[in-house]
Write a structure and sequence with these properties.
Elements: E1 6-16, E2 19-26, E3 31-40, E4 43-46, E5 49-59, E6 62-71, E7 82-90, E8 93-96, E9 120-121, E10 130-135, H1 148-158, E11 168-171, H2 185-197, H3 200-203, H4 205-208, H5 224-229, H6 245-256, H7 258-266, H8 273-278, H9 290-327, E12 330-332, H10 347-354, H11 357-373, H12 385-396, H13 403-414, E13 420-422, E14 428-430, E15 444-448, E16 451-455, H14 464-476, E17 485-488, H15 497-512, H16 530-543, E18 548-552, E19 559-567, E20 572-579, H17 590-607, E21 612-616, E22 622-625, E23 637-644, E24 658-664, E25 667-673, E26 679-680
Parallel strand pairs: 10-11, 11-12, 14-17, 17-18, 18-20
Antiparallel strand pairs: 1-2, 2-6, 3-4, 3-7, 5-6, 7-8, 7-9, 10-24, 13-14, 15-16, 19-20, 19-23, 21-22, 21-23, 24-25, 25-26
Helix pairs in contact: 1-9, 2-6, 6-11, 11-13, 12-13
Amino acid sequence: MKLPFILSGPILRRVEPTSIFIWIALSRDVKMDAQLFQIDEDTYIPLEINTETKRFRAGNQLYIYLIKISPSKAPFPSCTLLGYNLFFKKGQVVRDLGSYGLLTKEFNQSIVYGNLKYPAFYIDHESLPTNLLYGSCRKPHGVGDDALIAADSLVEQKHLDHSQRPNGLFFMGDQIYADDVGDPLFPILSVLGSELIGHSDHSKLTDLIPDVLYPRLPLVNGRQFLIENLANFSTGKGDNHLITFGEYAAMYLISWSPEIWESIQENDLIHSFRQMIDDKQLHLKFEGEPQKREKELSMLKARYEEQMEQIREFIVSISAIRRLMANIPTYMIFDDHDLTDDWNISEKWTETVRNSPLGKYIIGNGLAAYWLFQGWGNNPETFDEPFRNKIEKYLRSGNVESLDYKEGLDFLWDYHSWHFIAPTVPKTVFLDTRTHREFDPMPRTVKFGSLIEETSRTPLLISEKGWQSTTEKLLKSGWNKHTPLNIVSPTPVYGMGLIESFLHKYVYPFKVLGFPVQTSFDFDGWKYNGKGFYAFLSRVSSWDPSYVILLSGDVHFSSAVKSEVELNDGKKLSFYQFTSSPIKNKSFTGMWGFLKKSMMWLNAQKRKDQSLYRSCSTNYSLSLTKDKTGLPKQKLWEETINYYSFDGGTIAETKNSIGYLHFNNSVFENTLLLATEPIANDENVK
């Protein structure tokens, strides 16, 4: 399979006055250089810059580059449109982005807006309004249109208007779905992953999977048993779960790169269901039972064709998404599906998977891929040469008994510095709520009908050590007390109480008892662990911001909430929670979707146009009332919560969307960008 030279990118990553980072993935090794322009109407003034390129060879045909552009003299100007070009040098041959059609407006893969010559952006400044795009949960075969198309259209319209143009793009988790891979995608990822990485990517699997089960690996619908019983994962959608590093890398590429899809089509890798049957690429669980086999085939065919339709729509959107990411500083944090569903949901899950050779291997590959495709560009200076060497040795290791493999895998599992501070205005704290967890050993007793059992408690999403590390990074970032602060938490701090309470009370116990419960919600809400929520409030209170903007995704609905909190020491906090999810994974369908929507409607009636009052007792139990006089006298904190409606009166929107938050002088305008028409909050939050 011949791969394109540019595999993915360029993606504009961390941007500040003293440094600009650009990420790109290539299939061949070249020397990189860059040029930066100050754009004044039709004039492009070259700026004096220094460039430094870090290269990471991840496979035979996968080279990841991170280009750092820094000023030769004074810091780069803010409030000024800046454009960039990249150069690829091999021997005496020098090409640029234009050599591959990316700067040609007539070319459908162009990454420029309007009449500009180059991809362009603004550097944040206090004098500019803050305009943030934020969202999560994007799955190629997810139901509905990709909302990032609407984000690209907005930038197209506003690309010269620095007061309205988005100056930050936040991806807040589930950028890929490693555990929920569409049937039509699976053979593509298998071939592409092998081409990218080479034989070493599969050599370890012979030691991790019994010979009798090994033939299932390349088959569509063949991995659920391996994932449940060898990896000890809990996902119910592991039929095509990603396993190798190459498969993870391939999933990122098909999510971001139009060139990859051109190569896939040129190599005839998109197969019909009939072709898959003829080529014996499908695993049937009832192979030896003719009647059940026919029913299974019918079900799989319907699933395959439905997913294929969604994937075709997804492919059409990718050029727009690539253009968007090339023109806006982009920051990304993981949630569970970037690795696997339920990642670190409990201490038992974490330990069981770590003690499974296959499970540990898969999580290691997912973390290595996350770093290369997402984490590296968030704060590149964090990842020094020893870090990169550890990962490179791990990926190059030939077998699971090698020292490089064992040390690299342990290093990835034990690394807990994925959180970072983005240099936005105001600063943004991106929380790691997956690897910083702390688990409470005390059991929780639950009763459901005649069933009385003790189950694991939900985790503290961030441990005390995690909070200390986050605080150190925030204080070193130059942020000042008594000023605003953004916090990105992949799971919302404030969600929809009724449906979350139902799930936590009645569904979570079955989950931890081992029943095969699957929902589109995680059991990881901040409020599920009162001790952890109090730690969150106490830590933010110690930072002492003037107010906090909370941005979240994960839950497959969007909402806007304001909370005024008073702690028992008299300190007060103002929170503005904006949630946007999903980008492309509409999940409120079928009977279960109808039930969830009904709950949300009931929830809306209880919360709309009125204040709710919540408090936390000294034993960390929460109370919610409509009357403040009903709150207990002895409490750790209390708060007043208000939900804001969208156009049409709902307080929760379930359509595919990406949030667009515009704020200036403490006045917020929150709009959900849909692939069709935008939906705004009925009133500004002040």
